[in-house]
Amino acid sequence: MANHVVFFTLVALTLCHLAFAFEPSPLQDFCVADSTSSARVNGLACKNPMNVQADDFFFSGLNIMGNTSNPVGSEVTPVTVAQLPGLNTLGISMVRIDYASWGLNPPHTHPRATEILTVLEGSLQVGFVTSNPENRLISKVLQKGDVFVFPVGLVHFQRNVGYGNAVAIAALSSQNPGVITIANA
User: Is residue 169 exposed (0-12), middle (13-18) or buried (19+ Cβ within 10 Å)?
Assistant: First the structure.
């Protein structure tokens, strides 16, 4: 019995030391994603800082309307680490969402990010569903300039409730937020 107590005490002390070794702040100025590396960490391997260029921190195209002529009537233009290597390890990304009249960004979730959405044009009904057992719908109609937040991991949607096109910009709290479209899953 005494051996078990000593063993579990040592395990507990080791785990405590591991927990305190975590560093939440960046340990360097940046870590531009090296898409050619096969190494995977919590993010992508870093490009040699001496090879980093301004274009690694640049994306162009959020001014271009997405093609909404599809069954759901919306198009998401992402700006994640896949499009902007300088986002690697920074914990942020963004998207532009275009909606045709009555277009829908169908119910989906981001398993690794909270989302904050701003309406640039049009009127959107937005909402999310709370987790079990309530599964309560929290919903609101937003107008140009309005902002709404979707908590991490919760199923949410946006729907254009106007007769013209609508546009929104959303920021996400992950360089790679992931997306699971509920109907596809």
Answer: middle
Closest CA relative to residue 167, chosen from 132, 184, 139, 142: 142
Which residue from 94, 139, 154, 138 is spatially nearest to 120, judged by alpha carbons? 94
Q: Is 61 left (phi over 0), alpha (psi -120 to 50) or beta?
A: left
Check the annotation: does 17 bind a ligand: no
- The answer on whether 4 is annotated among ligand-binding residues is no
Enter the tokens of residue 48: 């040699």
Query: C-alpha angle 35/36/41, rounded to 5°?
Result: 60
Tell me the H-state helices in the chain. Answer: 2-20
Cα separation, 146 vs 141, in Å, equals: 9
Query: Is 134 labelled a binding residue?
Result: no
CA dist 72 → 94, 106, 136, 139, 166 (Å): 21, 7, 24, 19, 14
Q: Following DSSP, what letter does each residue of 113-127 receive, concatenated?
A: --EEEEEEES-EEEE
Q: What is the pLDDT of residues 157-175, one digit of tens each?
A: 999 999 999 999 999 999 9
Whether 16 shows a pLDDT value over 50: the answer reads no
What distance lies between CA 151 and its chain's CA centroid?
Answer: 11
User: Given strand 104-109, what is the order of strands in its sheet?
Assistant: 137-142, 124-129, 156-160, 104-109, 180-181
Q: Are 138 and 117 within 8 A, CB to CB?
A: no
